[in-house]
Write a structure and sequence with these properties.
Helices cover 33% and strands 25% of the residues. The chain has 533 residues and is an alpha/beta fold. The chain has three domains: 81 residues, no CATH class; 246 residues, Rossmann fold; 109 residues, no CATH class. It has a five-stranded parallel beta sheet with strand order 13-14-17-12-18. A hairpin with a 2-residue loop joins strand 2 and strand 3. Helix 5 packs across helix 11 and helix 14 crosses helix 15. The longest helix is centred in the middle third of the chain and has 20 residues. It is globular, with a radius of gyration of 30 Å.
Length: 533
């Protein structure tokens, strides 16, 4: 006689909610015991990985649990109840009544930041990536080595750790000849820089550093700059967003994108030619692994991990402030009036081609093979420096050279020429030196000197358009004396076109004045303690 098979039934966790203090402790213990599937801790918050579909296919999202979500999850994965006293035949009898924790109780539980039972979550990935140790993350689910949750949206298949020369050559031919071969790069540098940006999401953890800001520029519309971002979208996923002109709005946009999206690439699309990419908050973000900003209408701070590649597209992009030294340029120049009318491409309609899952798989496999072949060869790095981004530059310089793509970062001078602040300030100082020589001038005197003159009925700009102004909401507004003083103070002792802006401190009036001198005639520090005249 055979023994009957016994099936063990896993009953839901029972949680007594009768007394609020005990309920808080019981729910906290249950969460730490991971009774709610796919629950992790991220920046001190209990988070839940969920899959949604907005009509374009399944997508992973990371939700920070709030009180309502916690109540819903407990209703599915536990048996919460309260003990009520009812009368039976006139006698008080305790009875268990099903129920959910109050919003106040749920909020108290989620206010905790220490969750030792939950695994830390760095992010999610829908594609295989290279781990810091050089291995490839391919297994679905939570990966302790990277603290990433991997749920593939494409079935890429096995990628060899050491691709053969034939496989590597085929991947190069496909990527460089078919996918990227018909883009009108203005130089080898633009092609190499784009390849580096394209490989960044795969190698971000491996390189151990932050990537710079990617500028995808073109001489005219229809050149293919948006199509370059679509290649990234097809391979990894990309979030497109509009350019934001105001500094405070940019801060809110960054906070929202980091908290509410998971795509590894974020692109500010089609920046207007009248806009300059110069936001201080964006420059600060690029050199920070963590982003913090105050929540709108609250005293608390929002904190998020900066784990994205940031891009911008536009025609003849210009940069200012610290963005020039924190950006990498790739530029298209079709050298024709109507680039959208070009024909004879290897891939006739790449927009449609990129939508096919089979083509996206082929693209991603080619990128992975190129990465693995470089790592199998010892991951040779380039001897190159890029302030704040040297790890990225050394890795990508080595990878592009290994695959025979020349010119990486060779267009740095062109990027500096696109720095509107540098060029406009240089023009201003050159005109200043021409007008006043080495004579010190206060900001009030300079503002007065910039007033338009009426010469025989014609208004004439005495500064020939070089006098600086402040940009507000996309409009150029003349500086006040106070505003110009701040502008000059921020540029004191800096060199522009061989000229130095030297501060002159008037000890009597306690006011700064400034003069412009040739760099070779000055010695640091450039502070004149004589009285300004």
């Amino acid at each position: 006689m055979s023994a009957a098979a016994v099936t063990e039934v896993a009953w839901p966790r029972r949680i007594d909610l009768t007394h609020e203090d005990e309920a808080v402790r019981a729910i906290t213990t249950a969460i730490n015991d991971r009774i709610i599937p796919d629950t992790y801790v991220r920046s001190g918050q209990v988070t839940h990985v969920a899959e949604v579909d907005h009509g374009t296919g399944p997508q992973l999202l990371i939700h920070a649990l709030d009180a309502a979500m916690l109540r819903e999850q407990l209703s599915r994965h536990a048996q919460p109840y309260r003990v009520r006293i009812i009368k039976v035949e006139g006698k008080p009898v305790p009875r268990e009544v099903p129920g959910l924790p109050t919003v106040a109780t749920s909020s108290a539980v989620l206010s905790r930041t220490d969750w030792p039972g939950l695994q830390p979550l760095a992010g999610v990935t829908a594609v295989p990536i290279i781990r810091p140790d050089g291995t490839t993350l391919t297994c679905p689910g939570y990966d302790p080595a990277t603290r990433l949750f991997h749920r593939p949206t494409l079935t890429v298949g096995a990628i060899p750790d050491q691709p053969t020369p034939d496989a590597t050559g085929a991947a190069r031919d496909f990527l460089f000849g078919e996918v990227l071969g018909d883009f009108p790069w203005d130089s080898d540098a633009s092609r190499a820089n784009y390849l580096a940006l394209l490989m960044t999401p795969l190698l971000r953890l491996y390189m151990g550093g932050l990537p710079p800001f990617g500028l995808i520029s073109a001489t005219t519309r229809g050149s293919g700059k948006t199509l370059l971002t679509e290649i990234m979208r097809a391979a990894y996923g990309l979030r497109m967003t509009a350019w934001v002109r105001r500094e405070e709005e940019m801060s809110k946009t960054i906070t929202s994108l980091l908290k509410d999206t998971v795509e590894p690439v974020i692109c500010f699309d089609n920046v207007d030619s009248f806009d300059t990419i110069s936001h201080g908050v964006l420059a600060a973000l690029l050199t920070s692994t963590e982003w913090s900003a105050r929540l709108l209408g609250a005293s608390s701070m929002a904190t998020a991990v900066n784990d994205r590649l940031w891009l911008a597209t536009g025609n003849n992009l210009t940069v200012g402030g610290d963005m020039a030294s924190r950006s990498v340029l790739t530029r298209l120049d079709p050298r024709t009036e109507r680039p959208e009318e070009r024909t004879g491409f290897v891939i006739d309609d790449m927009w449609e081609w990129l939508k096919a899952p089979a083509n996206r798989i082929r693209l991603l496999r080619a990128l992975l093979v190129l990465a693995r072949a470089w790592i199998a060869a010892g991951a040779p790095r380039a001897v190159v420096k890029l302030r704040n981004f040297s790890a990225w530059a050394q890795v990508m310089g080595g990878l592009t050279a290994f695959h025979g793509v020349e010119g990486f970062l060779a267009n740095r001078d062109e990027l500096e020429a696109a720095d509107e602040e540098e060029t406009s300030t240089a023009a201003f100082l050159l005109k200043w030196h021409e007008k006043f020589g080495a004579e010190p001038k206060r900001s009030t005197e300079l503002v007065d000197s910039a007033r338009m003159d009426n010469v025989h009925g014609t208004w004439v700009d005495p500064w020939d358009g070089t006098f600086p102004s402040v940009i507000k909401d996309g409009k150029s507004i003349p500086f006040t004396a106070k505003g110009l003083g701040r502008f000059l103070s921020a540029r004191r002792d800096r060199i522009f076109a061989g000229l130095v802006l030297v501060g002159v401190w008037d000890s009597k009036s306690k006011v700064w004045a400034y003069k412009v001198l040739p760099h070779e005639s000055t010695q640091s520090p450039h502070v004149d303690t004589e009285s300004a005249k």
